[in-house]
Each structure stands twice: as C-alpha cells, then as structure tokens.
Specification:
Layout: H1 2-25, H2 32-57, H3 66-93, H4 102-127, H5 133-160, H6 163-187, H7 190-218
Helix pairs in contact: 1-4, 1-5, 2-3, 2-4, 3-4, 3-5, 3-6, 4-5, 5-6, 5-7, 6-7
Length: 219
C-alpha cells in the first residue's frame, strides 16, 4: 500500500517541490509558464496512449523475442512517451519570451515530464494492477534524466538560434536513454542497470552544470 501511494504521488510531489524551490529562489519570477508546462505535460500523455493502444491492437506488447523487446522499448515506450513531451516543449513552451536559455529548457522539460508521468503511473496501475510499484517509482525518478537531456538541447537551440538540430538532438537523446532503461527493465538485466543509473546521473549532472554556465555567460 505504501508503494502504491508513493507511485501515485511522487510525480506531482516532485513538481510541487520544484515550484517551491523556484518560488523561494526567484520570488518575483514568472511562474505561469511553469503551470502551463505541467498541464500540457498531462495532455501530452495522450500521444503515448495512442502508441501503446496501437501496439496492443497489433499484439506488439507480446514480447516474444529480442527484436520485439527492442521495438517495444525504443519505439512504443521511448518514442511514444518522449514525442509528446517534446512537442509540448518545442512548440508550446519554447516560443515564449520567458524561455531564454538551457536552464529554462531543463526546468520546463522537468515540469512537462512530471505532468506526463502523473498520468502514466495512474494508467499503469489501472492496466497492470500487479505491476512492480518499486519499478514504477524508479522509472519516475530516472525520467528526470530524459527531461534534463531534452530540455538542455531544446534550450540550447534557442540560445544558438540552431533550433532544428539541437531540438532533434534533445528528442533522440531522450528516446535513447528512455529506450535503454526500458530494455533493461524488460530483460531484467540487473548487471546493466547500475552502470546505466550511475552513468545517467553523471551525464545529467554535467548537463545541469553546463546549462547554468551557459546562462551565466549570456547574462
């Protein structure tokens, strides 16, 4: 029961914590776009739903062999979930005048991700009541890696006026990391899990540092 409650509340709670921190750090900041990001993140989950429903109808969620596991991990889950978040970040949030740098990209991308995952977790529990809740919790935490990668590159594109290449780099980077994680979960390969988690944490930390550095230089 405890894991169930955590699974359902962890994503909204992380969104609240991010808002509280930013409100404390920048009391005069503009937060309307932050709320908008979360709301559109919730709606972006519809695209993931379409991918999953289509895969279900075509029996592609029956993971009989390695090829199907790869397809499911990178296309149905990786592309299906990250595409919706990307479209929101790139076409609804990025054009705002309040979106100025990679730091903004990371922040708004995280908020979009929290919104989407709030729905993903509910849907997973409804569809698969016996799903491992600890895996659901870890998936929520690791999703911040994909959000940081996507947000950094999309924000970098606005800074460098090179939006197409940088935005696609963010999208495919998020898909790749999401796909690798899902593949590890589906194959239950614990030998790869810890190196992936440690490597992802290091990469995420470096992207955050770089985004802060770029923002400081632009100021």
């Amino acid at each position: 029961m405890t894991y169930l409650v955590i699974s359902l509340t962890i994503s909204p709670l992380l969104a609240v914590l991010l808002y509280v921190y930013l409100k404390y750090r920048f009391p005069e900041g503009y937060f309307k776009l932050l709320f908008k990001s979360y709301f559109w993140g919730v709606l972006s989950s519809l695209i993931a739903g379409v991918f999953f429903f289509t895969a279900y109808k075509l029996s592609y969620i029956e993971l009989k062999n390695l090829r199907r596991i790869l397809f499911f991990s990178f296309i149905i889950i990786g592309l299906g979930q990250e595409l919706g978040k990307f479209l929101v970040l790139r076409y609804l949030i990025l054009p705002s005048k309040h979106f100025k740098s990679p730091v903004d990209g990371v922040i708004y991308s995280l908020m979009i991700s929290f919104g989407a995952i709030s729905i993903f977790n509910i849907a997973t529990i409804v569809i698969y009541p016996d799903y491992d809740m600890s895996t659901l919790i870890s998936s929520t935490i690791i999703s911040m890696v994909y959000a940081v990668i996507m947000g950094f590159f999309v924000g970098l594109g606005k800074t460098r006026k090179n939006r197409l290449i940088d935005s696609l780099s963010g999208l495919f980077g998020a898909i790749f990391f999401h796909g690798v994680y899902e593949f590890i979960i589906q194959t239950n390969d614990r030998l790869l899990l810890w190196p992936f988690l440690i490597g992802s944490a290091i990469i995420t930390f470096l992207f955050i540092l770089k985004s802060i550095q770029i923002s400081d230089e632009n100021k």
